[in-house]
Amino acid sequence: LKGVPLIRVLTFNTWLVRTPLGIDLADDVDVRADRIPTHIRNSGADIVFLQECWSWELRKRLRESLHRLGYSYSAESSSVEDTSIHDRRVRGFSLTLAVSFVRKSMGNGLMIFSKFPLGNRITTISFSQYTRQDELFVTKGAIHTQCHIPELGTVDIYNSHLGAVTFNERTGEFD
Question: What's the angle, vertex CA 73, arms to CA 37 and CA 48, rounded to 5?
Fold first, then answer.
């Protein structure tokens, strides 16, 4: 379409899974964290949505690297509302407190980077339910902000990380 600016958008699930204790639950987390910014720059994307950037330290590294590569604007939630879970106790230990600590430490893992100015307001949406047991320790949801694109105006943008589903080969159905 003539006169409509071409905007390139990239969404990428980074699988940068590092716990608050510094334990990696994925292979080669540091190697991938170092390579991701260059691949993003080489993609030519104007706006980038990243998911599963769980570690605050890795988020800082990505933010600094991408800012140096021309993604001058970024957005992420600075705090994540703790979604409600039922209190579960195991031998007097409150699983709810442990889950709450890990969720707040890891956040929702969502980041937005842009070559265009982003709005100052970031809205966090936290889902109150999870689809699998292993998602109990993270907060799935979305973040929203606005992006000011020359020749187009202000656009609402969302980055989301939905719950996972698993295919059950035995039954031939999705769980």
Answer: 50
